[in-house]
Amino acid sequence: MSELVFSQMISVSQLQQLLETQFRLTGVPGAILDSEERMLASVGWQDICARFHRCHPVTNARCRESDAYIKAHIDNCPAGYVDYRCQNGLWDVAMPIFIEGRHLATFFTGQFFYDDDPPDREFFRDQAGRFGFDEEEYLAALERVPILSRSHIQDVMKYLRSLVEMIAEMGLKNLRLNQEVEQRDKLEREAFFFRYLVENSRDPIYVLDPTDGYRMYYVNAATCAHFGWDENILLQTRVPDWDPHYDAARMSALYKQLKQGKPARFETVHRVASGALIPVEVMAGYLEYEGRPLIAGNFHNISERRAMQAALREREHNLVEAQRIARVGNWSWDLFGQLQSASEECWRILGIPAETFAGSEDMLFEMIRKEDRKRLRNAIVKLVRNRQPCATEYRLQQACGEELVIQDQREPVFGENGRMTGMVGTIQDITDQVRIAEDMRAKDLLLLQQSRMAAMGEMISYIAHQWRQPLHLLNLLVYSLGHPGNGGGSDEQRQQAVAQVENLLQHMSSTIDDFSNFFRTDQGPMPFDLKESASKILELIATDLKKHGIEIVFDAVDGLLVTGHGNEFSHVLLNLLNNAKEALIDKCVAAPRIHIHVFQDGGKKIITVRDNAGGVPESVREQLFESYFTTKENGTGIGLYISKVIIEKRMQGSIAARNTGAGLEFRIEL
Known about the structure:
By secondary structure, this protein is α+β, with helices and mostly antiparallel strands. The chain is built from 21 helices and 23 strands. The strands form five sheets. Strands 1, 2, 3, 4, 5 and 6 form a six-stranded mixed beta sheet that branches. A hairpin with a 2-residue loop joins strand 20 and strand 21. The longest helix is centred in the C-terminal third of the chain and has 52 residues, at 431-482. The protein starts with 5 loop residues before the first helix and ends with a strand. The mean pLDDT is 84.
């Protein structure tokens, strides 16, 4: 019992009855206070103190002085008690009550006179006058104060202390007995609880006896279920019976470690009743029970964890392989430009081992071409400022001297407080893709040139058609001007003829300008009008279409401007019109017609070219835009492919073909 409390050892009501009986027998007033100076019981206190001395500030101060003196000397009194005559003229006595050597209570008596020191009535009369007490009542109270002998007081004090201490000690024994019973009941409840907990735990729990060849000393129901054996069988088995990895030396070292107070955790396998081997993680610790050294612990099946670990390893391997094949590495940086982590592919791309990398962006920038460093720095600054992902390309030189083109993509990482803590991203070696793209651009340019050359033949044919009639008229006009006698007419008529010649020559010159502009490649993207561009192409081929009886329906909205290479768009339109013309001629359509529609749909500018030549098989339609695919006997297979390249790559639009029932329609969206 850490703290003894007097009121727990003795009944306060019985203590009060004891003091009252003692007062009736001896006439000695008394009170008992606990160690906190709380009044537990009292009897017989005199009116002279209660009604007078304790009610006046001066006399009350004298009472407190008496209390303080007794309190200061109570623990050091050779006689076993301390007495003190207060300045108010009465005696007070206090005696400590000890239980098992500890001062737990104090017995007080007082407000009396010793018979060898009787009261001085004049002293009290004078006190009544000085402090304003009613003299008659005050002296009457004085008469009621008991006069006792010193021996009587000593006998009463000793008797009462012995009686109280005896009662308190008996109460203490009863208290301790009750507490022991309660503690035993508590331990039994706890033991039952923990046994129930162990018995019904879903985790297998075991105890081994090292002194009996590591035989099972205890198993719970979960252990029996794990092994597939009942308790009686399991308690006869030893570690080698169910652990094929058992090693005597290793087991001895493990036991020594456990005895040193160092718990162990390890993985092994268990052979169960079915013969299957189950991977388990085992926890073990040292235990002594009834003087017997034991090993106790638990284990759990880690088959699922092993499977997950294997799957994780496979995913990690696949990720590494995927990064190796795609030449993509991932890494993370803090806000101070320090590398936090990087995948294996990062080091392969950088061409250096991880241990030689300084760990900061400074070394990365040293590997980047000087003219590309600013681009990456600006991208990182923008990411930090705007908290938005960024992507940039730069050229990087490996330690071996090989130069790579890198695609660097990063995005911010935020903490729980919403503050940016760093960056994560990827680097990809796109050197091969860049080279392939450059090769493709070169190929497209070559095909475009081939297509232009093919178109040039068509254009020359169209120009020849357009020049044939003007040349015939020029011949007649020149002849008439040169032979005025043959009907050359008057000067006015000659001037009119000259004006006609000039107009014809201007028309032919503009035709040459259109032809030259059509094949120019030195102009950058510029705004141009779709209707105007389509009109010029129609003017060039109108004569040829008319010769074959092909009707042109041109429906165009004014003011639809797009930005791009106008001559290249004209090239596309010429390809589509030529394909439509040839399809109509080859299929001998009775009333051939080409419909050109230029309009706007939402934010898109739309151009459609539709014929009534019956369309194409779906298998053919799906291959129309492939390079070198053609259904014509002398076709090159590059016209529609180049058209797709121009619209989609150079003008960021789209082109598609569909069968309408009457014929084939090409739709361009810009």
